[in-house]
Amino acid sequence: MNENQRAFFRIDAVVPVAVRRIDADGQPWDEFPGETVDLSAGGTLLTGKEFVPAGHTVEVELQSASPPLDLVGRGRVVR
Asked: What is the DSSP track for 35-58?
């Protein structure tokens, strides 16, 4: 697979999110708002006013009334 190919299809979707940084013990220690830019089965591109360095773990909560959505997941910042 070259750099222009993706393993998963991405969709443009703007959904408000709450982003929580996770400490070394696996506990969230702060929260800030953001929103998705796009979503795929392999991850999401987010924007927010706080910086989180690559390699750090975050918890992301997506909630929407239309379409109905309530999802919390953890992941690692890759860039």
From this structure: EEEEEETTEEEEEESS---TT-EE
Phi-psi domain of 31 (left: phi exceeds 0; alpha: psi -120 through 50; beta: other): beta
Six token digits for residue 59: 């918890």
User: pLDDT digits over 21-79, tens only?
Assistant: 999 999 999 999 999 999 898 899 999 989 999 999 999 999 888 878 899 999 999 98
pTM of the model: 0.83
Question: What does residue 70 show for φ and ψ, rounded to 5 degrees?
Answer: -145, 100
What angle (nearest 5°) sits at the alpha carbon of residue 16, between those of residues 26 and 6? Answer: 75
Burial class of residue 17, CB neighbours in 10 A (0-12, 13-18, 19+): buried
Cα torsion 24, 28, 34, 36: sign: positive
